[in-house]
Amino acid sequence: MLTDRQKDLFKIIVEEYIQSAKPVGSKAICERLNCSSATIRAEMSSLEDLGLLEKTHISSGRIPSEKGYRYYVDNIMEPKKLSGEDMLKLQCIMDNKSLALSDVIERSMEIIAEMTNYTAVILGQSSKDNLVSKVEVIPIDDRNLVAIIVTDKGHVEHKNIYLEGLVSSNDISKTVELINKLIVGTPIDEVSSFLEFKVKPIISNYVQQHEILYNAFYNAFNEFTSNANHVNMAGRVNMLKQPEFSSVDKIREIVSKFEDQDIVNNIRAEENGINIYIGSENNFDDDVTVIKTKYVIDGEEGTIALIGPKRMDYDRVITLLNYITENINK
Amino acid sequence: MLTDRQKDLFKIIVEEYIQSAKPVGSKAICERLNCSSATIRAEMSSLEDLGLLEKTHISSGRIPSEKGYRYYVDNIMEPKKLSGEDMLKLQCIMDNKSLALSDVIERSMEIIAEMTNYTAVILGQSSKDNLVSKVEVIPIDDRNLVAIIVTDKGHVEHKNIYLEGLVSSNDISKTVELINKLIVGTPIDEVSSFLEFKVKPIISNYVQQHEILYNAFYNAFNEFTSNANHVNMAGRVNMLKQPEFSSVDKIREIVSKFEDQDIVNNIRAEENGINIYIGSENNFDDDVTVIKTKYVIDGEEGTIALIGPKRMDYDRVITLLNYITENINK
DNA sequence: TTTAGCACTCGAAAATAAAGAATGCTAAAA
DNA sequence: TTTTAGCATTCTTTATTTTCGAGTGCTAAA
Predict the structure, then answer these.
(1) Burial, B75: exposed, middle or buried (Cβ in 10 Å; 0-12, 13-18, 19+)?
(2) Under 8 Å between Cβ of A269 and A321
(3) CATH 3.30.390.10 residue spans of chain B
(4) pTM of the predicted protein model
(5) Is B120 helix (H, G, I), strand (E, B) or coil?
């Protein structure tokens, strides 16, 4: 257990380092704790023994260790209130009634990325586990249709369909009716195989140009799944400006992770509430912290996340994300 | 006018530099031209006087100047055939019948980005100048609708609509009918103002819950324009690996340009055919070359582009892009 | 017109030096 | 027992110098 003075000291060191990005030396603190630098050094040394602080080299000042950040977040940090300025910027977007909720989130995260100088990630609703609840077709001309697929969670996607031959509108509506009868309730990522095994055998009995129609629909449905995940990022470059990412190789590494769909998708939040993954706790990169939380729109879950250096302004970020999610839920 | 030997020399220097990224000295060439390094030096000097070559410092080897690259592209370069290996990789995607054309383009550009180590940009159809040709509405439940808007060029978008109160299906279809009557033929980015000035005055006479419906549609249409441009990039990190981008500041500059929607959108091709913009000829960055060309799907134009260092493998890139556009047009 | 030879320039990398910020430790002071 | 002053030590950063080699331009001879 830490003494009060150790806690004070630790808090000062972490917050000073978060702000300055430079190892914190003993002299810089002694005024604030009313004691000599030698005393501070002794205390620093014991905090290091506890694994909360580290040195970058043998005679350097101290920086928080990963364990230190974790301890800070769990036990030391005091949640702040949103500053007036921050609130003002966000409120403008929140109050804009003409924006869809998903766009409100996007804009808010853009603003937050800018305010904090971290990188924002928005992972839209994943429709993998959605069930098809309705399929509709809108004719455009002789050869082109638009198929619209609606899921039980209200997710909608559309796809252009090109017919390889002329087909009567009667045949089209028959096919759509059939698809609706057979496919409703199917998970969206299984639709194409359902088409093959349930619709194909039947369609040939009822519909004249069944080959053309079947092929067209099969190809269209085949791709609904792939477009499902909507990923958005803002402020990629912000994080690259942080002093911890000032080597060419590190920057390239981060940029290449930003670009990797799988890695970014992996940020999707699993747990409820705001979760903080420091360094090796996250799957993105050992040198960063990922803070993420779920949001729900129309029953579909999405994730918003901020990626920054481990030396993140934790309480501010948490306050901001809280504010967003609270407002979304209204 | 250049002598034959000057042309040969120039070609060798440019291609050597494209390949090695290191200034080319006189000694390295003398074997290939059967003369001494002193002779090469004299010729290099005159090519420099013509503005085709540059030195990085007073006693360095030569590199092509911007004007030199331009001359190389216009007069020296001989178009290559696609290598068997390159063709094989692309053919796999082209032949995949289950892919929509736009996805074929996307995948192909991903492959090309990987093969060349440059960055690919795909700017999908811009719907700014599309005219609305049809509006449809699909009810999902009591409170939710999906509006689908189809343009004269076959572009389709959809938007979820949430009704702030209960509205009869009759009212909804009346409204849609009205919208269709009044709005068809309007440019898509003017729809919301048309709604306000043409539909609003009339709707109140015919429809019960006109306020709710009007607001819902107004908000939905308001955003069709913003989602119009589909931008996709592949291999962002590739270009950052090129030796000319090995300073932290330059990398940050490029990444931040990649992130800027306006700058990226500005890449959209204006002219027909494959166009090459070297260094200051492009609006992206003086240190890069942008090669771009239009493609057409269903009457809508898009752009594919490759961004690389000025020291680009011009003939290979041109061959690749040619191959893509030719195959798309079939 | 071409070539050999030579002085010269410059960049990249390695070596050296100097300044400064912190530390740990020890012994004295509180 | 705790705190502090003092000091040698360690290590980073920055600047300076040195060295090495690649490449050039020029001149005079082939």
Answers:
(1) exposed
(2) no
(3) 132-222
(4) 0.85
(5) strand
Instruction: Check A98 against B222: CB less than 8 A apart.
Output: yes
A212 and B CB contact within 8 Å: no
pLDDT at A127: 64
Q: Single out the residue of A118, A20, A8, A27 nearest to residue A63, CA to CA.
A: A20
Chain B residues with beta carbon closer than 8 angstroms to that of A235: 259
Question: B99: which 2 tokens?
Answer: 């892919």
As given in the structure block, the two tokens for residue A26 are 């003993």
Provide the pLDDT confidence category of residue B315 given band limits of 50, 70 and 90. very high
Lowest mean pLDDT among A57-66, A205-214, B167-176, B232-241: A205-214
Task: Check B134 against A134: CB less than 8 A apart.
Answer: no
Give the whole-number percent of chain B exceeding pLDDT 70: 95
Q: With beta carbons under 8 A apart, name residues in chain B contacting A258.
A: 236
* Residues A31, A36, A40: CA angle, nearest 5 degrees: 90
Whether CB of A46 is under 7 Å from strand C: the answer is: no
CATH for the stretch A84-126+230-328? 3.30.450.40
Q: Does the CB of A46 sit below 7 A from strand D?
A: no
pLDDT of residue B51: 96
Cβ of A3 less than 7 A from strand D: no
Cα–Cα distance measured from residue B295 to residue A24, given in angstroms and rounded to the nearest whole number: 57
Q: What whole-number distance in Å separates Cα of residue A36 and Cα of residue A145?
A: 79
Q: Are strands B275-278 and B156-162 parallel, antiparallel or unpaired?
A: unpaired
Query: Considering Cα of B246, then B247, then B250, then B255, what sign does the dihedral take?
Result: positive
The topology (CATH level 3) of A4-76 is Arc Repressor Mutant, subunit A (1.10.10)
Contacts of A251 in chain B (CB under 8 A): 240, 248, 251-252, 255
Q: How far is A158 from chain B (nearest CA, A)?
A: 7
Overall fold of domain A132-222 = Enolase-like; domain 1 (3.30.390)
Q: Estimate to the nearest angstrom the gap between the alpha carbon of B61 and the chain centroid.
A: 35
Residue nearest to nucleotide C21 (CA to C1'): A60
End-to-end CA distance of chain B: 41
Give nearest nucleotide to B57 (CA–C1'). C10
pLDDT in tens, A156-171: 788 888 887 888 888 8
Contacts of A150 in chain B (CB under 8 A): 138, 140, 146
pLDDT of residue B128: 67
Q: How far is B206 from chain A (nearest CA, A)?
A: 24
Q: Consecutive sets of 10 residues in chain A, 330 residues long: mean pLDDT of each?
A: 94 97 95 94 97 96 98 94 91 78 89 97 78 85 83 78 84 87 85 83 83 83 65 94 92 95 92 95 97 85 95 96 88
Question: Is the separation of the CB atoms in B313 and B319 below 8 Å?
Answer: no
Residue A236 confidence (pLDDT) = 95
Mutation target vs B (from A101, A152, A156; most B CBs, 10 A cutoff):
A156
The pLDDT of residue B264 is 95
Is A38 (CB) below 7 Å from strand C?
yes
Task: State the angle between helix axes of A101-116 and A314-328 in degrees (0 to 180), rounded to the nearest 10.
Answer: 170
Residue B268: pLDDT over 80: yes
Distance from CA of A28 to the nearest CA of B (A): 31
Chain B hits for A140, CB-CB cut-off 8 Å, are 133-134, 150, 154, 156
CATH 1.10.10.10 range(s) for chain B read 4-76
Question: Which strand D nucleotides have any atom less than 7 A from protein CB atoms?
Answer: 3-6, 9-12, 22-27
